[in-house]
From TrEMBL:
Keyword annotations from UniProtKB, A to Z: Dioxygenase, Oxidoreductase
InterPro entries documented for this protein: AlkB-like_sf (IPR037151), ALKBH4 (IPR032857)
One GO BP: demethylation
Keyword check for Oxidoreductase: yes
PANTHER family reported for this sequence: ALPHA-KETOGLUTARATE-DEPENDENT DIOXYGENASE ALKB HOMOLOG 4, OXYGENASE-RELATED
Gene3D superfamilies to which the protein is assigned, alphabetical: Alpha-ketoglutarate-dependent dioxygenase AlkB-like
Protein name stated in the entry: Alpha-ketoglutarate-dependent dioxygenase alkB homolog 4 isoform X1
Gene: LOC107271000
GO MF annotation terms: demethylase activity; dioxygenase activity
Needed co-factor(s): Fe(2+)
Species in which this protein is naturally found: Cephus cinctus (Wheat stem sawfly)
Amino acid sequence: METIRPCGCKGIRTCLICEEQFNIPRVEFASDLQKKACFVYCLYCDKAWRGWDSNSYMEHPNHNGESISFPGVYIKPDFLTDAEAASMLTNLDSLRWELSQSGRRKQNYGPKCNFKKRRLRIGDFCGFPGSTKSIQDKLSEVPLLQNFQTVEQCSLEYDPSRGASIDPHIDDCWIWGERIVTVNILGDTVLTMTVYDGKSSRYNLEDVPSYPPVVKESNEGKPFDIVEFQNSQYKKDIVVRLPMPAKSLMVLYGEARYGWEHSVLREDINSRRVCLAYRELTPPYLPNGKNFSESVEILEKARMFW
């Protein structure tokens, strides 16, 4: 619906507030997913085991049943200490939160991007809050994130009282690079992965085969090409659930980044969740890239903290 809604939702996006206020029927997405072949990724053995309950990874190493490989995900539990997480939450809550879609609130720091027209502008971007620098410093210590330069940092809040969620999507591939980074500050939750079988023009996925892989293991050092999930027994009818405990770090890359949509279901937000999401630029906008001249000033600002 195109009605202006004070809750922050637009178009097809809804939350509990506008669903009640405007009598918008809710789409039962989670129940449909549970009818498919569902697997839960284990943080400790790097395999996904048959099931839906995201807490089943805690049974490690006593897993039962069928397992599959799921390439392109790295999860580090306890990336933050209790003290670091509590301090960061205080820092984020001292900054201004803005309403966003689907019941979320956000704090966004980065350039202005028009994904349809493929336009990049610095806008009012002047770097990141100094109170969040410690997280970016910790990211630089992770081997998988070698040479990762944050150009967008987004704080996201999910509140169960608002029915907060985020619909299945792939982060834009024209401007955002291979590694999708999330630090979960508060609240255990789960990222739900579903195979993408749409057009390559969506999400600017058609650009991806021209990029050299940043994470070499994602395609043996060759340009990444989107492939169908390796287990043809399930084809498109497969769901992989990635646990995101509080204080953990998650990185998506390679197949998980480009071949799967990710979402956060309303049913998986049982308490306030706060996370920090980080994005890097694609190779054409990095040094020696053909569009580097458009991003020079942005990359300079991205090294600043205020």
